[in-house]
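Worked example (supplementary).
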Amino acid sequence: MVMKVYGSALSTAAMRVFAALYEKDLQFELVPVNMGAGEHKKEHFLALNPFGQVPAFEDGDLKLFESRAITQYIAHEYADKGAPLVCEGKPMATVGVWIEVEAHQFDPVASKLQWELVFKPLFGMAVDAETVKENEAKLAKVLDVYEARLGQSKYLGCDCFTLADLHHIPTLSNLMGTPLKELFEARPKVSAWAADIMGRPAWAKVLAMRNQQ
Amino acid sequence: MVMKVYGSVLSTATMRVFAALYEKDLEFEFVPVDLRAGEHKKEHFLALNPFGQIPAFEDGDLKLFESRAISQYIAHVYADKGTPLVCEGKPMATVGVWLDVEAHQFEPLALKLRRELLYKPRSGMATDAAVVEETEAKLAKVLDVYEARLSQSKYLGCDCFTLADLHHLPAMTTLMGTPVKKLFGARPKVSAWLADISARPAWAKVLAMRNQQ
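After joint prediction of all chains, the assembly is encoded as:
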């Protein structure tokens, strides 16, 4: 039975999962969830994710939700397929730190900016300049730490591409389409890292999915 | 060389790490960080956690930060010591889901309520009743999901106590000292689970550390 991802190619969280599946060269079926129609709050979807959020995921009898739990399952279970997503001989603990950094330092700020600068305009809503200014300053500080880190390590977790990098790609990619790209480009190591991870073939496949929607 | 935890006994994130160490019966040295003096923003601490937050952690040459990365390191590397923190024969993937649920669904709400109900009064600021009401309503919905989950599973991740449960203890214990406790009390399975995990000897040791300050 093929793995299923319930969600939308426009959801950054779902795109995290697609990216991991493509990195691992795994077959999967996308089951679209019509969020505009509130499908994610209906009974049949709540059975997959009781918090009513995309993505949800099935591999045989195993049902999962929370995009980073799903990607970590994929990376662990299919460790011998596709991109390694680990650094040979290096402690996974440091990758674990930077997975948490993406989730707790980068994503809260980047998601707020993504909402203001990418999604609100799509929905015809007014951008809150104060929120943008406040979060831009926070993002700059986070990226200063990334710049220092990437001065010591080729990728965030270690010298190989791992989930600690992958988890950034969907939101990072969205922000690079806004004036905020300056923040990334002003920092040479961050800029090179961003270009590198967004240039991965697996990510191109995720974008192709989105462009078909 | 003994493991070191840099932080504060009053910090929920630091308490998470203490709890994991006590569950595993591990020796460690607690190095207090003087937050009031801004020690966490000084050079020597930033070398341990470039985001200037507690806790930070050292095991020999390995330096880690982000409390949930530290606790997962402890659980993994010291798998054969103390409490298992896994369910034998059960997929770790489901524990992974509920680890992320605590981090993304529960904690943000818990910390918002803590700020309004405890921190603001302490620093002479007014509690925002509207924020409390709105956040309590969201927390109630999260706890409804927990109630359903705990009707199917003895603990959140599986039928054994794991980090998915442990990570809740610091913020939850804090909220039980506020009117928010009624939300937990109103849900029998949540209430029983909370009583069970709060009664663990390792947690009593963490509280003893805090009470000594």
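Two points are worth noting when inspecting this output. Chain A is about 55% helix and 10% strand. Strands of chain A lie at 3-7, 28-32, 56-59, 62-65.
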